[in-house]
From TrEMBL:
Coiled coil stretches, renumbered: none
Sequence ranges assigned to domain Sporulation protein YpeB PepSY1 and PepSY2 in this UniProt record: 168-354
Species for this entry: Paenisporosarcina quisquiliarum
Domain Sporulation protein YpeB N-terminal residue range list: 28-152
Name this polypeptide is given: Germination protein YpeB
Length: 429
């Protein structure tokens, strides 16, 4: 009995030591994380001061060479502060607005270095930015000092960050930065159109019911006609209203999303085991072609196929009905099982957003003068792609072969049909 009592006492002691060490290790980890966050926040504050100086410097020089360094600093510091902010457990709304502002500032500096921003417009914007950064720096210091000073407990820090009602200081900072974005970098027509597309503003169809999209699901995917479905609506504040349907049927589980307006298919994900059988790539292509037509997408063309060890990924692009040019931004992605070609995934978001296409001249190009003697054009067609201003541009899409004595390379090049500017150049092999 004494031996048993001794063993139990020893076990309790060992457990106590183990729990103490575990608790101590947890505390050490939390302290280390807090130290890292503190260091990151301090770095962000220091870089913000450097960013202010760089913005001021960029408005001093008129000489292009003298402007080069401050412009490079603005782009670099904007990117670095974005990285710091992304790694910090800060109020989500503030992080989103501040990272957006920094991204727009960095992009604007890059465009200026490429002479794509008029000097008058550059001075107007950067003078506003310099003034706003001065004011914002003071508010940031107050908010970050409060966060670092008051949160003695790491758990309390996390709790305060995640709670539904963040600190009033961070809420105010979020509103401040949003105001800066709207005043300093008002949306261009192209950016406004892009935002409207992402929010599916162009859909004007009448709303449909949950029952209607459930019936549509069973028609599109006959293997799910007996599946158990759980349908829910998107939360208030979502970019656009949609229905989210989760399902389970035998070995298959997954979800399907439909827009509430019109009941358009947005996305599908089906999870099930993949067998060992493999069907040829040509059959996969045929099944993908039949699927997009069955889903009602009859104005698309297959533009890409790629595989991994379990599935094939197939991409379709919309064709402009007037000139049959591929609109790569209006794409549909499919995922097909390698064993039998079953559709396991669909993404139609880009297709539904539907790009606005410009009226554009097609000025012929003498490709013999445009390329070197080493280049041979393998294929030429029309396609749309976006430029740096997010504008869709009609291009000559060329597949060219550059042949040298030692090696050959294939390029995919998109040349603007009006300006003859190269918008994309991609090495294929």
């Amino acid at each position: 009995m004494k031996i048993l009592t001794s063993i139990l006492a020893l076990a309790v002691l060992v457990m106590g030591v183990f729990l103490y060490n575990s608790k101590q290790n947890e505390m050490d980890m939390q302290n280390n994380l807090r130290a890292q966050y503190t260091s990151r926040m301090t770095d962000a504050s220091e870089k913000m001061s450097e960013l202010q100086k760089s913005v001021q410097s960029a408005t001093v020089f008129n000489d292009k060479a003298a402007q080069a360094e401050p412009l490079e600093d603005i782009w670099r510091l904007s990117s670095e502060i974005k990285s710091d902010i992304a790694s910090l457990p800060l109020d989500r709304e503030f992080s989103k607005e501040w990272m957006n502002y920094l991204g727009r500032l960095g992009d604007y500096a890059r465009l200026k270095s490429q002479d794509k921003v008029p000097e008058e417009q550059w001075l107007k914007v950067t003078n506003n930015v310099a003034k706003n950064l001065d004011e914002f720096s003071y508010e940031w210091q107050n908010a970050s000092t409060e966060l670092l000073a008051n949160q003695q407990s790491f758990k309390k820090w996390q709790k305060d960050i995640k709670k539904d009602e963040p600190s009033k200081k961070w809420t105010a900072l979020s509103s401040t930065v949003k105001g800066y974005s709207e005043s300093d970098f008002p949306l261009t027509a192209s950016e406004s159109d892009d935002l409207k597309k992402k929010e599916l503003k162009s859909i004007e169809d009448k709303p449909v019911t949950k029952n209607q999209v459930e019936n549509t699901l069973k028609e599109m995917f006959p293997k799910l006609k007996n599946a158990k479905l759980v349908a829910s609506s998107s939360k208030e504040g979502a970019a656009y209203p949609f229905y989210h349907i989760q399902f389970n049927e035998g070995i298959r589980t997954g979800y399907v999303d439909y827009t509430q307006k019109g009941g358009h298919l947005l996305s599908v994900l089906i999870e099930r085991p993949i067998g060992k059988d493999r069907i040829p790539q040509e059959q996969i292509k045929e099944k993908a072609e039949r699927a997009v037509k069955a889903f009602g997408f009859d104005d698309v063309e297959m533009v890409e196929t790629r595989e991994n060890h379990l599935v094939w990924h197939v991409v379709f692009a919309r064709l402009n009905p007037t000139n049959k040019a591929r609109i790569y931004a209006d794409a549909i992605q499919l995922k097909l099982a390698k064993d039998d070609g079953e559709i396991l995934g669909v993404n139609t978001m880009e297709y539904i957003q539907k790009e606005t296409l410009p009226d554009q001249k097609q000025t012929p190009v003498n490709w013999d003068d445009y390329f070197t003697e080493q280049v041979t054009i393998q294929k030429e067609r029309l396609a749309y792609t976006e430029n740096e201003l997010l504008q869709q541009r009609l291009c000559y899409e060329l597949i060219v072969l550059k042949d040298t004595d030692t090696r050959s390379h294939t390029f995919r090049i998109l040349v603007d049909t009006e300006t003859h500017e190269v918008l994309k150049s991609e090495l294929l092999n």
